[in-house]
Amino acid sequence: MDSEKILSRLVQIGTVSDVDNGKRRARVILKETGHTSGWLCVLATPPFIPDYNVPQRTEFESGGSGDASFASHKHDLIIKPWMPKVNDQVLVLYLPVFNGDGFILGGI
Fold it and tell me: Are strands 40-42 and 25-30 parallel, antiparallel or unpaired?
């Protein structure tokens, strides 16, 4: 493959066709060619985001403006790292070698 073709496929846009949340990977239909990619790894989220489906708790110790409607309360919530969903548009980066692996950089 010549260098011009390699460079032209480095960064591509596509639509997610399949997702494997457990392995943090997805398959993408590439906009330019219409071909479906192999499994592409989704870049890891920043380390300050907890693991997938781990419960988190927020606590407010005092009310706002002294109003009784702002009494102390708690919220249970779950923070999930970003993963694309089927039909999401994503930006893909391929390594600049023949049949190089690719990675999903994020959503568009």
Answer: antiparallel
0.85 surpassed by pTM: no
Are the C-beta atoms of residues 28 and 14 closer than 8 Å to each other? Answer: yes
CA distance 1 to 44: 30
Report yes or no: 90 and 26 within 8 Å, Cβ to Cβ.
yes
Q: What is the spatial distance between Cα 73 and Cα 16, in angstroms, rounded to a whole number?
A: 39
DSSP 13-46: EEEEEEEETTTTEEEEEETTT-PBP--EEEPPPP
Q: How many residues comprise the chain?
A: 108
List, as one string, the DSSP characters of 70-100. Answer: G--EEEEEEE------TT-EEEEEE-SSTT-
Domains and CATH numbers, the chain: 3-46+82-107 (2.40.50.230)
Question: What tens digit of pLDDT does each residue of 13-68 get?
Answer: 999 999 999 999 999 999 999 999 999 999 986 655 666 677 655 555 454 454 55
